[in-house]
Design brief:
Pfam families: 3HCDH, 3HCDH_N. Belongs to the 3-hydroxyacyl-CoA dehydrogenase family. InterPro entries: 3-OHacyl-CoA_DH_NAD-bd, 3HC_DH_C, 6-PGluconate_DH-like_C_sf, 6PGD_dom2, NAD(P)-bd_dom_sf. Pathway: Lipid metabolism; butanoate metabolism. The chain is of the alpha/beta class. The chain is built from 22 helices and 18 strands. The strands form three sheets. An eight-stranded mixed beta sheet has the order 3-2-1-4-5-6-7-8, with helices on both faces.
Length: 603
């Protein structure tokens, strides 16, 4: 037999006999993947009851696969026949590979590895499924550290495509090749990463989750608004607080503590609320209560509790809004004008010149034509929508609007000048809104004589498609102004979330530190662009990888937001990655220049 540690080993040589140590949810899922892929699998757990539960889970899971047409009954019988259980590690004696997925404890895992040293063959590869502990530290305790590596599956293992293959400085290249080949043969997407807590996917994900928990703890926004903002603003399958409940608050705290112990980055220091919930036994879905309350332990059904907001329980009545002014001529301004016109509002679209305003209206016309071509609206409705938009070359045309929304350049001086002009032009009682994504709303408000009438309405691009609007109150915003904007958001079919006037609001405050940390991973040569993008799409359910997103947003825009966040929160961990600054200085701004983190074909 050729040793799996040999660098000359054929990439097609399979690891056929595999032991899985620890038969919890993850171990059971890994065992199923292996057995269905033709491997002989022994599942080992010190608890005979847990082993019985594992077998029952495999029988149920494979039965569902047959019912859905993903597996035939003979294939199911063969897969189940390839799996057996044991309660002693000696059952791994003839394994080619042992995958350990015991609880996240150095003491527990090291004990398992020490015992395996005296049981398995010298060439057997030992893999740990940890996502929080040091693979190097575990390997150093082994008699043969060169055969120890990390093999991090994601939950649920049968469904999730990502597998992180983790090398320490001690790991033999042949061991990495062997398990990488295995992952491919299992139908997974392996990514190669080095040994640091969280690796790639969890390393980026848990920092973001931690910041979301801290945001909620500070009473900056409600749990519902934080989760809705990240789902609707970023296209994520789950909001961060709901995801923490799914993962387990105690598990998240363990991962973050391991990350902070190594990085000493304050962004990884577990938010105090994670400790408080963990120690109170409020660990999420598995306990029936975490950030949310669930129907029963293990249930995914959220039920009302004392923190659930009441529908329509606003403290004030809004002002009537029949006409809307939109200031600007760019993509965002035309998109916002289209949204209001579709909802039946009369819209004045004002720019610095009549020509720019007419060009913006023409852009809306093309957008409406595309909607007609795709069957999303009738030609008659599109024509009526366009008729509601009046282009103007001066802000004087806003004299009679009830709501003025600015979408001009993201420059505070420009916005202040505009708000000073709106203050003079708009009638008393008109609501003045800024769509800024990173600048202080209060600075715009103070440029007027009526700061109580000023509020933030942060739309997301493209405005006609994106459902989220961040409603940003300053300390001076009137209750009736806030109620007005909430009511308007309902009429234009947008989901409004409330937040205070601080840098990044909800979405950008959580999104851009995550993007910045991804850049630091590449900058430190920890992982490649492609592997990081793949890890976040496959392991985190993100619609785009961080580098795909950065190139779409624009590296210059991203850098500007990073600088605003760093300046406001004064956290060293938020300092823009030097690599981002260098690329912007070189004019590599993303897709719009043909080159950012990647190169693009010129149009």
């Amino acid at each position: 037999m050729v040793s799996p540690l040999s660098d000359a080993q054929s990439p097609l040589s399979p690891l056929m006999k595999i032991a899985v140590v620890g038969l919890g949810t993850m171990g059971t899922g890994i065992a199923e993947v292996l057995a269905r892929a033709g491997r002989e699998v022994v599942g080992i757990d010190i608890s005979e009851a847990q082993a019985v539960r594992c077998v029952a889970a495999l029988e149920a899971s494979t039965a569902r696969a047959v019912a859905r047409g993903r597996l035939t009954e003979p294939e199911r019988a063969e897969a189940l026949g390839r799996f057996r259980t044991a309660t002693e590690l000696t059952a791994a004696a003839d394994a080619d590979l042992v995958i350990e997925v015991a609880p996240e404890s150095y003491e527990t895992k090291q004990q398992i590895f020490r015992e395996l040293d005296g049981i398995v063959r010298p060439e057997t590869i030992l893999a740990t499924g940890t996502n929080a502990l040091s693979v190097t530290r575990l390997a150093a305790e082994s008699a043969r550290p060169e055969r120890v590596l990390g093999l991090h599956f994601f939950n649920p293992a049968p469904a999730m495509k990502l597998v992180e293959v983790v090398s320490s400085v001690l790991t033999a290249p042949g061991a990495v090749s062997a398990v990488t080949d295995l992952a491919v043969q299992l139908g997974k997407e392996p990514v190669a990463v080095g040994d640091r807590p969280g690796f790639v996917a969890d390393g980026l994900l848990f920092g973001y989750l931690n910041q979301a928990a801290a945001m909620y703890e500070s009473n900056y926004a409600s749990r519902e608004d934080i989760d809705a903002a990240m789902r609707l603003g970023c296209g994520l399958p789950m909001g961060p607080l709901a995801l923490l409940d799914l993962i387990g608050v105690d598990t998240a705290r363990t991962v973050l503590e391991a990350m902070y112990a190594e990085s000493r980055d304050r962004l990884h220091a577990p938010a105090p609320i994670l400790k408080q919930l963990s120690e109170a036994g409020l660990t999420g879905r598995k306990s029936g209560r975490g950030f949310y309350t669930y129907e029963a332990p293990g249930s995914a059904t959220v039920v009302r509790d004392a923190l659930t907001p009441l529908e329509g329980a606003g403290p004030a009545t809004g002002r009537p809004v029949g006409s809307v002014g939109v200031a600007g001529s760019g993509t965002m301004a035309s998109g916002i004008a289209e949204v209001f016109a579709k909802a039946g509002y009369d819209v004045v679209l004002a720019a610095r010149s009549e020509e720019k305003a007419q060009a913006a209206k023409a852009r809306i016309g093309k957008s409406l034509t595309r909607s007609v071509d795709r069957g999303r609206m009738t030609a008659e409705a599109a024509a009526q929508t366009l008729e509601r938009i009046t282009p103007a070359g001066s802000y004087d045309a806003f004299a009679d609007v009830d709501l003025a929304v600015e979408a001009v350049a993201e420059d505070l001086d420009v916005k202040r000048q505009l708000f000073a002009a709106l203050d003079k032009v708009c009638k008393p009682g008109a609501v003045l809104a800024t769509t800024t994504s990173s600048l202080p709303v209060i600075a715009c408000a103070r440029a007027t004589s009526r700061p109580q009438d000023v509020i933030g309405m942060h739309f997301f691009n493209p405005a006609p498609a994106m459902k989220l609007v961040e409603v940003v109150r300053t300390v001076l915003t009137g209750d009736d102004v806030h109620a007005t904007v909430r009511e308007v958001c309902g009429r234009i079919r947008k989901h409004a979330v409330d937040c205070g006037d601080r840098a990044g609001f909800i979405v950008n405050a959580l999104l851009f530190p995550y993007l910045n940390n991804a850049i630091k991973m590449v900058q430190d040569h920890y992982a490649s662009l492609d592997d990081i993008d793949a890890a976040m799409k496959l392991g985190g359910g993100y619609p785009m990888g961080p580098f795909e997103l950065l190139d779409v947003v624009g590296l210059d825009v991203s850098l500007a937001i990073e600088k605003v966040l760093h300046r406001e929160f004064r956290d060293p961990g938020l300092a823009p990655a030097p690599l981002l600054e260098h690329l912007v200085a070189a004019g590599c701004l993303g897709r719009k220049t043909g080159r950012g983190f990647r190169e693009y074909a010129r149009r």
